[in-house]
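USER:
I wish I could look at a protein chain and see how it folds. I am handing you a single protein, as its sequence and its fold in token form. As I understand it, each token names a local backbone shape. I hope you can help me see how the letters and the tokens relate. The protein I mean follows directly.
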Amino acid sequence: MRPEDLTMTLADGRTLAWAEYGVPEGRCVLFFHGGNDSRLAGRLLDDAAIRAEVRLICPDRPGYGASTFLAGRTFLDWASDVSRLADELGIAGYGIVGHSGGGPHALACAYADPGRVHSVATVSSPAPPEAPNRGLHPAFRFMNLLFKSPALYRPMAKNQLKQMAASPERWLSVWGRMQPADGELFRRQPEVAHEIIAEMTEGARQGVSGIVHEASLYHAGWGFGLREVATSSQVWHGRRDRQAAVGWSEFLAEELPHSSLRIDEEGGHFSTLITNAQEILTGIAAGP
């Protein structure tokens, strides 16, 4: 039985929830879920974590899953929460993998706690607002504009969740058309598609406040400079990803001082993570 409902109480009384996958005695890697996801996204990486001999720790960010919402939080607030989680678990050093919206959060932790975060990987990550966004699907381009205004994005986020709950198969079909590489993965491995539905549903169990607030962070100042991130980093992206622009990861790789850019020529938004999971986890667990 995988421990998927672990919690701790932070100093301000909030609950921080996490799940664990992989090998309990393995090298520690924290996995940060995407902006519409939850700690249960770690299920997608469980087999790869076992093969890589990694203890995979997957926390819910504030307002997602079972973690308490925190109004006005920043990327660096998350770094503080993660430091407290590492204290709770007695982890002296670890790597971090951040998928999609988890990417900036991973970099924030590397910036804030370089003594413990020995390596970091971003996969299909956003970049600061000045990065180029060529190649986005028009629907995702429009959504990124709405991210800047929580009042405008909130009703769309609620509607998306309503549609997903009402007809998961239709939602997956639409996603697959907008993201053909992911659609191909879903047809080959339908169990992956249903895991994504389940972990997204868990992510929104408190509503959309966490999702909406986090979306606004991508387009504001991140609170730290990419050139100030001293940790060794890998920047992964799928060439066929139409939700996150390849130019975003190219920008990150250029700005981060100790980075390597890894492009999956056939990868999409989820498929890049899942197809390369063992290689990503092995590299990050090993450190620089």
About this structure: The radius of gyration is 17 Å. Residues 238 and 264 are 5 Å apart (CA to CA). The mean pLDDT is 94.
